Amino acid sequence: xxxxxxxxxxxxxxxxxxxxxxxxxxxxxxxxxxxxxxxxxxxxxxxxxxxxxxxxxxxxxxxxxxxxxxxxxxxxxxxxxxxxxxxxxxxxxxxxxxxxxxxxxxxxxxxxxxxxxxxxxxxxxxxxxxxxxxxxxxxxx
Length: 141
Fold this sequence. Notes:
This protein is mostly helical. The chain contains eight helices and no strands.
């Protein structure tokens, strides 16, 4: 079995940033395609080198910017952009995570209030669905 290759993480960090500054750099796979390692190795590089860890964060910002510009210029389809936007746009990811946390908190509070009244959330959901069915019944007959 061969020994794992050791890379110059400082040089790789510089190469990554240089590549990410190009307007057509929109996916880390594009960078790794020209290298002897896999995209999955980038996480390992980040844990081994502070410079590389900072470079990958900066590269993701540049990629997010490039991707948004390409959508605005109709060079990248919005569906492709949205599919992996969270991977590159940390501001978007953070906001979506906050929104999800707030929604979970809201639902937990609602379930707690229901429990205080003696209704089971499962029973309540069944009532809610039944109510929707009743609303949709044609009462004119």
